[in-house]
Design goal:
single chain, 113 residues, alpha+beta, 5-stranded antiparallel beta sheet, 2 helices
Amino acid sequence: MNDCLFCKIAAGEIPSTKVYEDEYVYAFNDIDPKAPTHILFIPKQHIQSAAHIDGDNSFIVSKIFEAISKVAKDLGLDDGFRVVSNVGESAGQTVPHLHFHVLSGRDMTWPPG
């Protein structure tokens, strides 16, 4: 999508602090972190949200979680981390492109806050 913020970040058209990249996944530090470690993992292919995952694109989610596991190990997130994906505006999704927040470095509360 030409006007998608995360598509532009993945394509290198908008600067970001890259943490990880492969053929399917791009990960970068969140510009408004909610924890000492706050990384966004996005598919390079535009998928609007988790509600738009289907048989044709679901393999990308496994690629994202493989990348999350690798980065968590590389960063030594041994005390734990949280993975969050919001779906829709009422759930807090501000960019309509599938993404997973990985947060670590502080105690997490539930409900999130």
